């Protein structure tokens, strides 16, 4: 396993934590498939799943931050688009054969992106969110949409 879930990644916001756990799972799945030398088609599908789910997560997160008038909303959104761009570029390099999936660059990205996203970016907004309210009001609605 490349990255293991730890309670230090818990934001306390149920829907966000559940999406983060899924992102850990998808990241590990991609890494394992690369290490196992899975076929191009399999890697292509898993990589695409990771990108799709990351975009979905970022858009849900941005909705929550808007609801709570997060003061650093713009910066956070910019961080999301930079990360999505980096992920897409790696994917294109992989698809065009410019970058082997088993390269150090891919491994380093997979190892750091979600941890960096949670610890250096998401933890900053947690104090602006009313956790009890968000759980009762929005979790079911968001979970319905994501699962
Ligand atoms: Fe997040």
What does this structure look like?
This protein has a single domain (13-146), classed as Hemerythrin-like (Four Helix Bundle (Hemerythrin (Met), subunit A)). The protein has 6 helices and no strands. The protein has helices at 14-35, 40-67, 73-95, 104-121, 131-137, 139-146. Helix 1 packs antiparallel against helix 2. The longest helix is centred in the middle third of the chain and has 28 residues, at 40-67. Bound molecules: fe (ii) ion. Fe (ii) ion binds at residues 16, 20, 57, 61, 117, 122.
Task: State the gist of this model.
This protein is mainly alpha-helical.
Order of helices and strands: HHHHHH
What CATH architecture would you give?
Answer: Up-down Bundle
Tally the helices.
6
Mean pLDDT: 90
Strand tally is 0
Strand content: under 5%
CATH topology: Four Helix Bundle (Hemerythrin (Met), subunit A)
Q: N- to C-terminal separation?
A: 23 Å
Can you give the helix content as a percent range? Answer: over 70%
Q: Which term fits the overall shape? A: elongated
